[in-house]
Amino acid sequence: MPAVAERILTLLVNTVNTILVGHLGAAALAAVGLSGTISMIGSTLFQAVGTGSTACIAQAIGARDKASALRYLEQSMLVAAALGLACTALFLPLTRQSLIVLGAEEDVVALGGCYLPYMAATWPMMSLLMVGSAALRGAGDTRTPMWIMGGMNVLNLLLSLLLIRGWGPLPELGVMGAGIAAGVSRALAGVAIMVVLRNGRGRLRLRQLFYPADREVLSRLLQVGLPAGGENLLMRVAFLSYTRIIASLGTAAYAAHVIAQRVESLTMMPSFGFAVAATTLAGQALGAGDPRRARRSVFCAIQIAVGVALTGSLVFLAFPRLMLSLFTTDESVIVQGIIPLCILAVGQPIMTIANCLSGGLRGVGDTRSVMWITGIGAWLVRVPLAVLSVTLFSLGLPGVQASMTLDWFTRMALLAWRFRPALWDKHARSAMGRVRLSPRGTPAE
């Protein structure tokens, strides 16, 4: 449940900003939405390191090998710091150009140029936050990341209220105010996770800020993390193409898409939270030498998460206009968002099952299969069908959203096939032989 709460709180930073700037007009809403899409590219790399950290630390904790868990933590944070700095140096000078590449109209580019730089500048701290939280989750501590994300949301909300519309002597900054609020809150949350890890939490303590590279540990982190990064990259690039297709339908259509995604994500985040639980519990059970328990953990996560998803689907199907009107008063945006939101509601249980199965496979280190399955769904189903929906069949936004649902259905079916007992047992038993590291300072076997 703390993992579910953390995921919802993570989403709320963007959701709060979307609600507050949505009433400034469709261009402001589209600017924040496109900036969030670009920001996801940087987070793709951080998530890859976080996935490797969660799986490796969970397996080490399950095997009661605290020394290996600490070495995984040390190297994960070292890589996180390097990646965060590299992403900021690369993307910060190119914020306006990246919005233009996505097909944003001139007014959207101007507004996005006031928002995106504050997100890009704080990537180093965001990287430390994401990877540090992932390490704690691998050790079984899901409460600390939840509390840090809660504080980040409170700060973001207060700053957004003060800066977007102005308060007292503070000027009205609009979209720029939302960017400043998000950037400051993310940076301070990154500081908080470093303080927690330095002071020690549970079975993890970061004894110093920088460590020399540990070849064996980095190799194992990369074995799990690189395919996870490849999966995220395939998905993000596909999502950029998908976003480019939607942006071609006009600002109002893209604004409707952004709102529908934000509304749908409020009930999709629990599925990601239960996927995190599946990753942690499957990894710890595997480290303890119990692959059957690892498999049961995943199915238990699916049962609970699907129940939550069905509840959300019913609400969205019953009150689509009400949910959309929370974000904007623009009638053209609301009208265009009703059918896509209903399509997303129908696909929620499918997405939930796919997320939990992916989480279970990551827990035992099988990120390679998840990467290939994600690539198949995104590039052979979602993007081609979205293009055909707009160019050949003239189905507009509803057709594009339907292509996403078919993508998730394809992934669910392939992941279920990969999860069948024979393949699961084979991979789990192979992974159990790679849990322990060589003693520090000695060559790996």
Descriptive notes:
There is one protein chain. The protein has 17 helices and no strands. 60% of the residues are buried. The two termini are 39 Å apart. It is 82% helix and 0% strand. The chain has one domain. The chain has 445 residues and is mainly alpha-helical. Helix 1 packs antiparallel against helix 2 (26-62) and helix 2 (26-62) runs antiparallel to helix 3.
List the helices and strands and how they pair.
Elements: H1 2-22, H2 26-62, H3 66-91, H4 95-101, H5 106-112, H6 116-121, H7 123-138, H8 143-164, H9 175-199, H10 215-247, H11 251-287, H12 291-318, H13 320-325, H14 331-363, H15 367-391, H16 396-418, H17 421-432
Helix pairs in contact: 1-2, 1-8, 1-9, 1-11, 2-3, 2-5, 2-7, 2-10, 2-11, 3-7, 4-5, 7-9, 8-9, 10-15, 11-12, 11-14, 12-14, 14-16, 15-16
Record keyword descriptors for this entry.
mainly alpha; 17 helices; 0% strand; globular
Helix and strand element order: HHHHHHHHHHHHHHHHH
Measured between the Cα atoms of the first and last residue, the distance is 39 Å
Question: Quick one: how many beta strands?
Answer: 0
Strand content: under 5%
**Helix coverage percent:** over 70%
Shape: globular
Biggest β-sheet: count, sense, barrel? none
Low-confidence spans: none
What value does the average pLDDT take?
83
Radius of gyration: 21 Å
Number of helices: 17
Number of domains: 1
